[in-house]
Amino acid sequence: MDRKGQGQPITSWTIHMIFRDFLGIRAGLIKALTDYEKFHQQCDPQKPYMCLYGCPNETWELKEPPDGPHELPEPNIGVNFARDGMPEKDWLAHVAIHSDAWLYSYAFYIAIRAGLDAETR
């Protein structure tokens, strides 16, 4: 199982590689949530199953999840469902909470797959 951009299977990642990945994804999510106009425009209500993905290179993308089961944890589906039905701050808080939860589940999943023990995690 290779990770795009890393070139190494997850089982050989170090804690430093995982943390660098975590920081890049986190920075990408922060950029998405702070560039409200661009993020809001891409949340098309006609596409109901959009997910906000943070990327390790500190970028973000809004896209539909892959079909079928996926090994890695997936972000919350449907960030655009309530876009026009909630106050702006509440909607952004909702997306931020789910993005944060996804980021932590992703990081812990990678740490476990890399074989890190509880003390190292």
Automatic annotation (TrEMBL):
Could you state one GO cellular component term attached to this entry? nucleus
Primary subcellular site in the record, as a coarse category:
nucleus
* Record's keyword terms, sorted: Chromatin regulator, Metal-binding, Nucleus, Transcription, Transcription regulation, Zinc, Zinc-finger
Q: Where is the Alfin N-terminal domain?
A: 14-121
Q: What GO molecular functions are on record for this protein?
A: histone binding; transcription cis-regulatory region binding; transcription coregulator activity; zinc ion binding
Q: Where in the cell is it found?
A: Nucleus
**Source organism's superkingdom?**
Eukaryota
Protein family membership: Belongs to the Alfin family.
Main function: Histone-binding component that specifically recognizes H3 tails trimethylated on 'Lys-4' (H3K4me3), which mark transcription start sites of virtually all active genes.
Self-association state and partner proteins as the record states: Interacts with H3K4me3 and to a lesser extent with H3K4me2.
Q: What is this protein called?
A: PHD finger protein ALFIN-LIKE
The protein's organism comes out as Musa troglodytarum (fe'i banana)
